[in-house]
Amino acid sequence: MEFSDLKTVAEEIKSSDKNIKLIYAFNGTGKTRLSMEFKELIQPSNNSEQDLKKIIYYNAFTEDLFTWDNDLENGNDRKLLINANSHWIRKVVTEEGAIGTIVDRFQGYVLNDKDSIVEKIEPHFNSDMSEISFSRTYRGNTAEGIKISRGEESNFIWSVFYTLLETIIEQRSDVDYEDSEYRDLEYIFIDDPISSLDDRRIIDIALDISHLVKESNKNGTGLKFVITTHHSLFFNVLFNELKSKSSNFLFSKTDDKYFLEKQKNDSPFGYHLMLVKELKNAINEDRVEKYHFNFLRNLLEKTATFLGYENWSKCVVLYDEDGNVESPAPYVRRINLHSHSAFSEYEPIPLTEQEKKVLERVFNQFLENFRFFKE
Length: 375
What we know:
The chain is an alpha/beta fold. The protein has twelve helices and twelve strands.
């Protein structure tokens, strides 16, 4: 399906008949902006009843609610500050037992071995819950007031948000939840909670979300979930865990249009298959642009790695009309030229028909050579 703006994309996602929507999109497509359009659709900013939340979201703006005081003067007392207007953060960290739950979950993400702790990172909340300091213990030596890595910070913020979700689902699972401040909540929107994380932690978070969503459905909370990501592994775990309960979409864009394509639940998802589909669509709809050469090169690189070739150019094999192998060099040069942003002088120049034909020929021959499935 084709859309002119993100608002209509958000409306289409909302109209899906299932309570769980999984959306895969390349970086730069507009997932964070989509999350805000969706939020405005469910609960406009000019709504006077802000305390009666209809949607809670996790995205780049959520992470911005936490900022660092790096103690630039002395460099030895660094703290992560909580935005004073963050009602939901203050609410969750003051719940009985919540801090212990947050710390346990955070350490479960960042420690390599929970049973034999050689290294330990400990968050410490101050008395009014407005800031957190961190200590690191390694082989019996403890350093206070450290700054944790970007991945560890992302894990910590997600641990706070996940604890909030657990609280919400627990309250909504109670038949008498009308007294809960979350009684009007309809949607939870989660946008890429996996920045700066390695694959093991990405899988951990995907499985945790799957568990929480299943619990919500099983307990009849009535909550609806929208989860977006650019990460194929994260999407794949969620897809396989939730596919019988979810509507799954592939989201993409050109300069002036957005595309939302429903993914079949009985079909496997793979990043390489997403690339193939986008390249096919771009060729068929005559909308090949420079960035499609990046997609083609990425596809060739992944295939070369899988097959053990030393270079992706080995996957460019072309034949003339008599069936003789042609030199791939001109095609490899053209792919190289258009898949490196360093050649900035080429950026504003539209592709010629000849250049589009280069991509089309290499791509179609690639599908033939490696026997990709055809409808």
